[in-house]
Design goal:
Number of helices of chain A: 10
Helix content of chain B: 25-40%
Mean pLDDT of chain A: 89
Oligomer: heterodimer
Protein name (chain B): Acyl-homoserine-lactone synthase
Helix content of chain A: 40-55%
Number of helices of chain B: 4
Structural class of chain A: alpha+beta
Largest interface: A-B, 44 and 41 residues
CATH architecture of the largest domain in chain A: 2-Layer Sandwich
InterPro entries (chain B): Acyl_CoA_acyltransferase, Autoind_synth_CS, Autoind_synthase
Order of helices and strands of chain A: HEEHHEHEEHHHHHH
CATH superfamily of chain B: Gcn5-related N-acetyltransferase (GNAT)
Number of domains of chain A: 2
Strand content of chain B: 25-35%
Largest sheet of chain B: 7 strands, mixed
Low-confidence stretches of chain A: none
Strand order of the largest sheet of chain A: 2-1-5-4-3
Radius of gyration of chain A: 19 Å
Number of strands of chain A: 5
CATH class of chain B: Alpha Beta
Pfam family, one (chain B): Autoind_synth
Strand content of chain A: 5-15%
CATH superfamily of the largest domain in chain A: Transcription factor LuxR-like, autoinducer-binding domain
Number of domains of chain B: 1
Largest sheet of chain A: 5 strands, antiparallel
Structural class of chain B: alpha+beta
Enzyme class (chain B): transferase
CATH topology of chain B: Aminopeptidase
Organism (chain B): Cereibacter ovatus
Distance between the termini of chain B: 19 Å
Low-confidence stretches of chain B: none
CATH architecture of chain B: 3-Layer(aba) Sandwich
Radius of gyration of chain B: 16 Å
CATH topology of the largest domain in chain A: Beta-Lactamase
Strand order of the largest sheet of chain B: 1-4-5-6-7-9-8
Shape of chain B: globular
């Protein structure tokens, strides 16, 4: 994904909204939103690129208190399709009016869990046929997982105490693998050098990438050099 | 048949979940001698309170015969905490596309040898197929599983060999525990299906997918 890297810019409201806009444009969604409850202060923080009229309606009626996309999705380890929610009073409280604002009840929420018990939710929606929706989901669910953890980590890092707690801790193996990437070796080469499978190399690289809060392996190498974890070639 | 049960559909399946905790008690407390908390004949720990997903295999008579617990490695999980020794003091993995599988077991008291649908080998394969298909639907590409050497050998023999390991095996109760890595991929599921002869859909009709 060619999208704004929140680890290289301030985690401002504008940048988070820009991130959601780019995410929708790249992956083919109508709208996206993110919400989290701070484990330190209990405050709810959120961003959405929904139309302003819908945001006003949602806030005026305090719909976040009953919204199943918030309260139910946090209970899952997997992305939750909104078709899983009971069509009960709470669901209708949120979605009955949503149609009038052009918001589709067809959506997916990706739950993220952080190491300190913090949880974040990235939601996306799109009005289209069920078949088209299922196909889209299958194609981009991996990208959404990576995007959700990236955004969540950026928001968590934005407060001073959390930032102090969140110095990335890489394993010796993750550092070793990144060092070989910096030296220009392919995953296949690295597997041969370290006598592990190239798939295992990939797992270490993805873990290092997520810990360093970057979107790509190349950026992760740059960040690790910047933090003095590895040496430039 | 495989049931995916998490905190969203738990209330519909409470008897199954209780049977699963009873199976875990028989395996991890009684047979493997792990230092686990048992209450009312059930083995439950604090990770069960963190909204994990359970993969549960139920036989034709409605008995729970196999299970596995899944957690995200981005959040609190066993390798980042209680199984830290396996990692030799190294920090745990943290990846949006890697889940942790723990408490993986099958009921060796009611299951048999061989390859029939009431065999250890069949149920092991069924649980793994269910877990990998669920993971794939969630965009998850790999799993790290805490297992014992017997389970490791079963996996290697059944077309499901780990692609790597983290840290080193550590003694735990009467056995050792190790952290095995497996890709959640169509190729791996196809190998397990070819070995086990399971060619039907293993998921319960009202399946949970992402």
């Amino acid at each position: 994904m060619d999208i704004i890297d929140l680890s290289t810019v301030d985690t401002s409201d504008e940048n988070c909204l820009e991130y959601l806009d780019q995410l929708c444009a790249q992956l083919g969604f109508d709208y996206a939103s993110y919400a989290t409850t701070s484990p330190l202060t209990g405050a709810v923080q959120g961003y959405a690129n929904y139309p302003d009229a819908w945001k006003m309606h949602y806030m005026r009626r305090n719909l976040h208190r009953v919204d199943p996309t918030i309260h139910k999705s946090a209970l899952s380890i997997a992305p939750v399709d909104w078709s899983r929610f009971d069509r009960d009073e709470r669901f209708h409280a949120v979605f009955f009016a949503a149609g009038d604002f052009g918001i589709s009840p067809q959506g997916l929420t990706v739950p993220v869990r952080g190491p300190y018990g913090d949880r974040g939710l990235l939601s996306v929606t799109r009005a289209c046929s069920r078949a088209e929706w299922d196909k889209l989901k299958r194609a981009v669910v991996g990208d959404l997982q990576a995007a959700a953890v990236h955004l969540h980590d950026a928001v968590m890092r934005s407060d001073v105490i959390s930032r102090a707690l969140r110095q990335p801790r890489l394993s010796a193996r993750e550092i070793e693998v990144l060092q070989w990437v910096a030296a220009g070796k392919s995953q296949m080469d690295i597997g041969d050098i370290l006598n592990i499978s190239h798939r295992t190399v990939e797992v270490h690289l993805r873990s290092a990438r997520d810990k360093l809060g970057t979107l790509s392996i190349v950026q992760a190498v740059g960040r690790a050099i910047g933090l003095g974890m590895i040496y430039p070639r | 048949m495989i049931f995916i049960i998490d905190s969203l559909n738990l209330r519909e399946h409470e008897p199954l979940v209780k049977d699963m905790f009873r199976l875990r008690k028989r395996v991890f407390a009684d047979r493997l001698g792990w230092d686990v908390r048992v209450s009312q004949g059930m083995e439950r720990d604090r990770f069960d309170d963190l909204d994990p997903a359970h993969v549960i295999s139920v036989d034709d008579e409605g008995r729970v015969v196999g299970c596995m617990r899944l957690l995200q490695t981005t959040g609190p999980h066993m390798l980042s905490d209680v199984f830290g020794a396996i990692l030799d003091g190294e920090p745990p993995l943290r990846s949006a596309t890697c889940w942790e599988a723990t408490r993986f077991c099958v009921d060796t008291e009611v299951l048999t040898g061989g390859r029939a649908s009431n065999s250890i080998s069949y149920v092991t394969s069924e649980v793994m197929i269910g877990a990998f298909e669920f993971a794939m639907s969630a965009g998850v590409t790999d799993a790290v599983a805490v297992i014992d050497p017997v389970m490791d050998r079963v996996l290697k023999r059944s077309g499901n060999a780990p692609h790597g390991y983290l840290g080193t095996p550590k003694p735990m109760g009467k056995v050792t525990a190790l952290a095995a890595l497996m890709d959640c991929s169509e190729e791996r599921v196809a190998r397990i299906r070819a070995f086990s002869g399971i060619d039907h859909d293993v998921m319960q009709p009202h399946r949970v997918t992402a």
